[in-house]
Write a structure and sequence with these properties.
The structure is a single chain. This protein has 309 residues and is mainly alpha-helical. It has twelve helices and no strands. Helix 6 runs antiparallel to helix 8 (181-197) and helix 8 (181-197) crosses helix 11.
């Protein structure tokens, strides 16, 4: 029991994933600033932002909303992100437990933050938050089908294995999946699914600062908003780590740890560059992008996998 609590709260769960995600958030903001010819924030700025919200800022509750659900939603988002992080990072770090890291469980856990944001926005009673929640629902419907097909294709490439540890071991015993044509296509799909799950431009329509003034988060402040930031920090780390585990050989000991860090930074860099070189899409455009083009890429990848390519 104590070991399981350590895995969830300390390493590789909540604290480790949150600190790493906060550092990646700084990396995101620093690269974005350089692209825009700005200096960017100091290294510890994400930590300053989090603790200022947690310890200094006041929590203002909506008058016409459901207070209990409004407060509960950010906690549920952190729980889902942290649990998904545990199940992704344990196999990556070669920590053997009784649970084999079933990828379908990871898939459902990764949906919890998005659903929590929807619940919280609808519980706030704010019409702008409701619009943001509606957009988030449509975005989930768009990319989740693509994401489950992406995972199904990985299962096919690994020889019908559902557990993440075996997927990683299969690549380490042979070649990384990204070294094939189907693997490259799946990498493209995985990156865009991660972009949408993180609500990064061009898929930030649920927040849409210029239109909805933060949209689904418009009523959040103080510690509840700090929990939302915490969930986003964790997701910024575990989604690239999931892509690395599924397609890029995971992590090996020794010099492989440095190579793993570089792969994580490379995926995050790609997400940041996409964010800074594209305009926000309309929700209809985002739906069409996933329903038509991303699903088409996944289907092509599945066919190529069936032929061993």
């Amino acid at each position: 029991m104590a070991v399981n609590l350590f895995y969830f709260f300390i390493f590789p769960g909540l604290i480790f994933a949150a600190v790493t995600g906060a550092l990646l958030s700084w990396f995101d903001r620093k690269i974005s600033a350089r692209v825009q010819f700005r200096k960017g924030p100091p290294l510890l700025q994400p930590f300053y932002d989090f603790f200022k919200l947690l310890l200094v800022k006041e929590t203002i509750l909506p008058r016409y909303g459901s207070t209990f659900i409004f407060i509960l939603a950010p906690l549920l988002a952190v729980f889902g992100a942290a649990m998904a992080g545990v199940f992704i990072l344990l196999p990556l770090f070669n920590i053997n437990t009784g649970f084999r890291g079933d990828m379908l469980v990871i898939f459902y856990l990764l949906t919890l933050p998005s659903f929590s944001y929807i619940i919280g926005s609808l519980a706030s009673g704010n019409p702008l938050a409701a619009v943001g929640g509606s957009r988030e629902m449509k975005l989930i419907i768009s990319y989740e089908l693509t994401f489950i097909l992406f995972i199904a294709a990985i299962i096919m490439k690994s020889g019908q294995h559902f557990d993440l540890r075996t997927v990683i071991e299969t690549q380490q015993a042979g070649t990384p999946f990204i070294g094939s044509i189907s693997g490259v296509l799946l990498f493209v799909v995985g990156v865009f699914c991660a972009q949408a799950k993180l609500a990064m431009v061009p898929f930030d329509m649920p927040e849409a600062e210029a239109e909805l003034s933060e949209g689904i988060f418009i009523e959040y402040s103080g510690p509840p908003y700090a929990m939302i930031k915490l969930a986003k920090y964790i997701m910024l780390f575990i989604l690239p780590a999931f892509i690395v585990a599924l397609l890029m050989n995971g992590m090996r000991p020794g010099i492989g740890i440095l190579w793993f860090v570089l792969k994580i930074l490379g995926v995050v860099l790609l997400l940041v560059l996409i964010k800074n070189t594209n305009p926000r899409l309309k929700i209809k455009q985002a739906s069409g992008f996933f329903f038509i083009w991303m699903n088409l890429l996944v289907v092509i990848a599945v066919v190529l996998t069936a032929f061993g390519l």
